[in-house]
From TrEMBL:
It comes from Paenibacillus glycanilyticus. InterPro entries: AraC-bd, AraC_XylS_family_regulators, Homeodomain-like_sf, HTH-like, HTH_AraC, HTH_AraC-typ_CS, RmlC-like_jellyroll. It comes from the Bacteria. Keywords: Activator, DNA-binding, Transcription, Transcription regulation. It holds the Pfam family AraC_binding. The gene is ybfI_1. Residues 190-288 form the HTH araC/xylS-type domain. This is HTH-type transcriptional regulator YbfI. Coiled coil: none annotated.
Amino acid sequence: MSEEIIFLQPVEAAQVVEGVYFPPYISLAHVFNAPKGWTIGPRRFRQYQFQYVLAGAASYRIEDQSYETKKGDLIVHFPNEEHEVRTLEGVPYVCVSIVFHFGSTSFPLEELLSGLHYVGSYEGTSLESALTAIPAEYHQPERVHRLRAQSLLMEVIYTLLRDQRSVALSSDIASLQESHIKHKAHANLVLLKNYIKERFAETIKYEQLEQLTGWSKNYILLRFKDAYDTTPMQFQIQLRIERAKELAIQSNMSVTEIAHHVGYADVHTFGKIFKKKTGHSLSEFCASLLY
């Protein structure tokens, strides 16, 4: 197929080869110094437009989105979008305005820019230099200057797409990092919970939990409380109470034996905690099961 393309007419070749576009055709390129009280729109272009603020500020609306643009800001709107510009009282507004299109080819600029209208601030950058040079080149009579203007416009588009890709890549990396952090946090919480379950009758200290997770005591308390609505030590007490209930129902063990089995050396301490958590003593709990 590649050998056949070289024998086609240019227009035919452009229709066959995907991803290859005509250079952008500039319809308008000028530096505009807005008079006092100037406004324009609402209006719609069938072409693309870059509006770059060289000085001052203005209010820019595209469809239902409004932007307060200032020096260095670059706005882009896409074909057939309603837009208007309003100057601010007492504030000058000088901008570079460039209207362009890609002829009969379809260039996915909106898709590549993720539909963004405000694409960033470029004050003092090489992109600003390119944007301000386009009108100067465009209004020179020789064709070489028009070619240079088109080349500069392609440089601007390339820079925007490169920056957009960098932002997207940074966002992806940040998302992966956030996902990794969340996954590690979840794993640590499960580890904590299982550790306490397996050792509910033992004396557990926060130093052990810190070594287990690599978290500080305060962070353990924060994350565990957020995930399970209780603290690790309160969770351990809940496990002890539930196990004590099971033993009271399923075995002939005495209250003292049950207390020792679930981790309390002092039966009186166990009795106080059990009553505080359930509202009645272990004996009362067992008696209530007979009715």
